[in-house]
Specification:
The protein is an all-alpha fold. The protein has 4 helices and no strands. It has a domain at about 40-85. The chain is elongated and about 75 Å long.
């Protein structure tokens, strides 16, 4: 009996791999999830999320949401007016 672990190299894109995993039956998906779940560092992910949120809040400090929405309205209104003027 061969006691060497199985080694398999596949050249798949992430999209191809995801497609193959989506075709697995649910019990196999659950088994795969259980095998990989312990590798996810949830505190690190939460920390990166919190840091990104802090950066967004710092960058948008002092920006009025209503004013931003109105500026976007004016920006698109000008585009629309330019489009109409061509007719």
């Amino acid at each position: 009996m061969d006691t060497h672990p199985l080694s398999l190299n596949l050249d798949l894109s992430l999209e191809q791999l995801a497609g193959a995993l989506k075709r697995l039956p649910e019990p196999d998906k659950v088994a795969l999830w259980r095998m990989l779940d312990h590798e996810i560092d949830r505190p690190a992910i939460a920390g990166r999320f919190d840091l990104a949120l802090q950066k967004i809040r710092a960058a948008s400090r002092g920006i009025d949401e209503a004013g931003y929405i109105y500026d976007k309205y004016l920006e698109h209104n000008e585009e629309w007016q330019e489009y109409i003027s061509r007719w």
